Amino acid sequence: MRLADSHCHLNYKGLGEQQPEVLARARASGVVAMLNIATREREWDEVVATAEREDDVWATVGIHPHEADEHPHIDTAKLVARATHPRVVGIGETGLDYYYDHSDRARQQASFRAHIAAARETGLPLIVHTRDAEEDTAAILADEMGKGAYPGVIHCFTASGAFADRAMALGFYISISGIVTFKNARDLQETAARLPIDRLLIETDAPFLAPVPHRGKTGEPAFVADTCRFLAGLRGEDPEQLAEATRANFHTLFAKTRA
């Protein structure tokens, strides 16, 4: 299989200390493309440096909704300026998280809209995190789409099937993580089984959410192969073909990776 891990955190604790080994294991598992996601401004330089050093790794710039209160100075202009780097291929991750409420909801929403404006201005895909904020996320995405189109993906999808349909109606891709392999993920499995193959991505969100049979371990990009095999079985598809399709979708959405 030739796979793309559309969302990982290679510089996070658990992976950053052994990054060369993590990358070697990913490549041995068939991973040929990895998107290294930024969540705080202080990570941007390091995330980009990894992408500069590794030909099969690309970077994003963004502020996670948990960090919105700590980054009121990060506006559209700052995101756009950093996104000019040739190895920066996406904006985010951004979005809304009302489960933990680590940041004020109004500040999360303002940050989210600033990221969307950056995606619109640069043409780079928006990487969206949403948890317990389905209605507000959908409303903001639709409202902002009315101001001008922009591409994007709902990462680590765990929302309802109805939300998936609303996101895809706006042109978004849906990225499935190792959560789909969990026994209690019945609703997600039902949605993942019916998603159109041309809107589907696969991710690890490493070092989090290691799929079965690696539950309890530190997640890493190599495990995207396990998620792909499970998802293929769920959908009645050949794992090789699903890997190829989702890898092609990755390069279609993150078009800058083709440069």
Strand arrangement across the biggest beta sheet = 1-2-3-4-5-6-7-8
What number is the mean pLDDT? 97
User: Main β-sheet: number of strands, strand sense, barrel status?
Assistant: 8 strands, parallel
Number of strands: 8
- Low-confidence segments, ≥5 residues, pLDDT <50? none
Describe this structure in words.
By secondary structure, the chain is an alpha/beta fold. 39% of the residues lie in helices and 17% in strands. It has an 8-stranded parallel β-sheet. α5 (134-145) links the parallel β5 (126-131) and β6. α3 packs across α4 (105-122). The model has no long low-confidence stretch (mean pLDDT 97).
In short:
The chain has 259 residues and is α/β, with parallel strands linked by helices. The protein has helices at residues 19-28, 44-53, 76-82, 105-122, 134-145, 161-169, 186-194, 224-235, 239-253; strands at residues 3-8, 31-36, 57-61, 88-97, 126-131, 152-154, 173-176, 200-202.
Keywords summarizing the entry:
259 residues, alpha/beta, 8 strands, 17% strand, globular
